[in-house]
Amino acid sequence: MDIMVMLIPGAVLLGLLGLGAFFWSLRSGQYEDLDGAAHRVLIDDED
Exposure pattern of 6-29 as b/e (b: 16+ CB <10 Å)? Predict the structure, then answer.
């Protein structure tokens, strides 16, 4: 039962860390242009 005292707060901490990383990516504009990356793959740069 002593291990549960360590595992539950650890799981909550990791969950909050992941949620914080998700909200940071939303604020920094990671999901603004989802189609742009798909179209850039198809563009053939002939330099």
Answer: eeeeeeeeeeeeeeeeeeeeeeee
d(CA 27, CA 17): 15
Alpha carbon distance 23, 32 (integer Å):
13
Q: What is the pTM of this model?
A: 0.65
The predicted-structure confidence for 1-47, as pLDDT tens digits, reads as follows: 899 999 999 999 999 999 999 999 999 988 888 888 788 888 877 65
**How long, in residues, is the chain?**
47
Amino acid letter, residue 28: S
